[in-house]
Fold this protein.
Amino acid sequence: MIASSWLLVAFPALGALILLAGGKRTDAWGHLLGCATVIASFVYGLVLFFSTSFDQASDTTLYSWIPVGALQVDFGLRIDALSVIFVLLITGVGALIHIYSIGYMSDDANRRRFFGYLNLFVASMLILVLGNSFVTLYLGWEGVGLASYLLIGWYQDRPTAATAAKKAFLMNRVGDVGLALAIFLMFKYIGSTGYAEVFAGIGDIPPAAITAIALLLLLGACGKSGQFPLQAWLPDAMEGPTPVSALIHAATMVTAGVYLIARAAPIYNLTEDGRLVVTIVGAFTLLLGSIIGCAYDDIKKVLAYSTVSQIGYMMLAVGLGPFGYALGIAHLLTHGFFKAGLFLGAGSVMHAMNDEVDMRKFGGLRSKMPITFATFGLGYLAIIGFPFLSGFFTKDAIIEAAFGQEGWRGWVFGGAALLAAGITGFYMTRLVLLTFFGKQRWREIKSSDGRDFHPHESPTVMTAPMIVLAVGSVGAGAWLILGDRLADFLAPAVGPLAESEHGVLPHAIVPWLTVLISALGVGLAWMLFGRKETAVERPQNVAWPVRAARKDLYGNALNETLVATPSLWATRFAVFLDNRGVDGAVNGLAAALGGGSGRMRRLQTGFVRSYALSMLGGTVLIVAALLMVRFS
Amino acid sequence: MTWLLALILLPLVGALVVAGLRSNDRLATITALAVSLVELALVVPFWLAYDPAGERIQQASSMDWIPNFGIHISFGTDGISLLMIAVIAVLVPIIIGTLGTTGKLPEGRTAGGFLSLVLVQEALTIGVFAATDVFLFYVLFEIMLIPMYFLIGGYGGPNRQYAAVKFFLYSFLGGLIMLASAIGAYSLASDELGQGTFDWATLVEVVRDAPASTQIWLFLGFFLAFAIKAPLIPFHTWLPDAAGQAPIGVTVLLVGVLDKVGTFGFLRYCLPMFPEASKQLAPLVLILAVAGVIYGSVLAAGQQDMKRFVAYVSIAHFGFIALGIFAFQPQAMVGSATYMLNHSLATGMLIIVVGIIAARGGSTRISDYGGMFKLTPILGGMLLIAGLSTLSLPGTNSFISEFLVLLGAFDTRPVYAIIATVGMVLAAAYVLWLYQRIMTGPLRGDALVGVTGDTTAGAPVPSGGGGATATAVEPEVGAKKAIRDLSVKEIAVLAPLVVLIVGLGFYPKPVLDKVTPSVEATLTAVQER
């Protein structure tokens, strides 16, 4: 089973190849093939999961990939508890979203190519989590970046989509440079890039190098997972079709940063500074994302910032090291269910509402779309941490672990995570109220393309995956957390889950405190958006914090000022310099030579004796030059 | 006669035949294609026969040319020149195959004349890489300019005369300075051995022990010639003009193959003959290399013209190659040697695709295009594949070499390597921006849209979510009829490049194995001194 685990990658890779190279000939059945390959991988993953013991990692080498002297990079796969969990998440949620896309993309003339890109994504993502060296991880890492680029830019006619796609790729590349430099450091100090060799040798290298590797890996993780300071691309990525947002920009790809840090646990275990920075980035980003999430009227952007914030929770958790690796992965899994479900629900709403995303134009949709409302509602309850649903178990476990830290760390990280839980309650309640409750505001207006709204429930091919994900949103958290089921399973890969003894708040209080704070957020949202009617037009005369949040807390402005504008000016200046400066000097020299040659022409007298004389002169010059060289 | 000599003579004979067929363009094209395919078929056993574990120079042959000065016509191949010979043999049939789809020949020119020059160029370039006599190398280095001069000056764009003269003068001057250095090395040998020689292996033995001050002067002579050829900044300004004016196939030859003589020269001549000078001057070269990476990338982003864009991209890539060579580290140098091959494939494909786009739209200005993908999805996909290889995406051939260069350079020269990694981000920026401007967004641009054209445009307004609304094409404006997707023949011409780009990205071992021993020998030659 393990020896042929390359089949996991091969199915979707073959699907992508057939769908992309096959062209229009595959239009008729392309979407079915796209689903079949992912389902095949999922089935293989399930069989692997139930038939294998994961007490230790098993590496298989497929072939020698980059062999150059001391550097021997194999193309190999690692099957262990961590990777198999991800395989199930990627192919399981992936298969559901492929099926949903059959319905969602049914009007798109290029649906077959869409499935080709999705298959390419799944194959790359599986390489990312299955590779057994940091270079194979890097291959998958940039491969998912390519798939993400292609899918964000799917709606070709929108200039904003192309810009968002490019922005996503570029900000990811900044992170990738960090990952690449970390790999170079590993080769320099350990002489290898394979997991087994690196983790065996990491203890023997200078502590400063370990911290440098940890921080550079974190830079890569920030790029891929939309964490501060590289978070700005993720909300823009919502330009892509909604199934893409659900699969790539919520459930799987953006959580790759969390995977990377959990995978590199043996490195992070050795550097407390490195872990602390991870925790700070997570705590800061989870607040940032939740605050901005309150300000948007675009349903997908609210969910996108919610993703930024929730991944912040996961980063915070894995930054706690042995206290949090398993908790971060647990939240990653439940988030994969409920956030994918929420996105598919949002997609179902958009499908019904002429692709409108402005929640101010929605309202009262619960009676028109009962299944969407029910599944979305369960996802909503899960994310705000309603008692005994998924989020209650996995998010609370992280908040508990954060309060479990000693001294100021406990108060700061725990406090941030607790506060954001309240804000999450606020923005998610606002979203649900604006969309499903209140007056049916869409009755009086037209969509931006001038059509009337006729909301309707989505077809079964779309609602069925939503129902499955809703079941996961309800039950997965309890199943994973109670009795430390996931933590024990993951222990061989990331180490056993440690329990803190010296926390700043007792364990028993935290869950109920969290529920209380979340309830306050929910209540506040109900006061503001549930009790009174919402205007279709967005109010412009608002207080400063709302203005700031609407501008992404100035994240984009910062990028513009620090990077984009200076680069543009540097480019213009360099082009000017090259044309006028470097080439100008050359052409000036040529002109001078031209003038000189005009004078020289008068030397061309036509007399053989003068030619002979000049040849002699030239030879003497060359010989003189040679003599100088030899005897100097 | 060795197999290698046959590889040099066949295109020359072919060129004579093709030159005789100037009256019939079609027959000339078919003949030239046949000759180049036979050449490619002959290169396959030649490649297989090279044994990396054996002697470094294989297939050696030698005959007297000017005995009084110890000048021989001697050829042979090591792993590095093997790579370059193979890539020429792959590219020439593709270049001949693109003739016609990447623009027409100027008025009054025949395919026969053009293709015979291309074949002569192929023979001379193989000769330059295979020469094992320094004087022979010099002579071929200079003679090689002549067919290229006529190819640019006779078949290029409106400003071709200026570009051809500039190209010729730059390279020729560099070559003359190299000649002075070669004669200097010769006289050192005649002092040492009592009899002068230009034999490469003998010269290396003698010159590498010369005092550092002498070495530096001789090194600079060779270096300047190669730095112009490669080109490194600030010797680069001829390339955008030459590449911008040359016809597409010639640009592929020029950027893809000819320029590699420069970086090849660093490896074959500068390092082993002048190890001490190489080490002392390495920081200078590394600064030029890293500056070239950044400068070329920034300028590529700022170009308005597609062909000049490709030229500046190449300048950035030559920076990477020079970085890998002068980092004096095994992985980095193998990276550079394979970069020479991979850059030929990636940039060769990029140039051809750009040429096809320009031939369709009748313009090389980037701003004359926009939203082309919906008319030509296959062409768009090809541009994307070439672009992804250009930005060294893992899974493409270029990733292997750029990764090795940076990984190795980081080992010995971390500061330079870290600065060069900025080039990774810049590469993504200039490639994706080019793709965005030409291929995505609403259909627009004078090259694609005409008021009088038939209205095949108006691709359906897409469904799906998001804030912005799609901008539909004005009803009376439609895509020009000439904008059609790739034909089967054009796909067949590009397919081998796609296969090589992806294939060598996932399985580079055959290339790495051939080249590693020769690179290690070069590196040992530097480090032992």
Q: What stands out?
A: The radius of gyration of chain A is 29 Å.
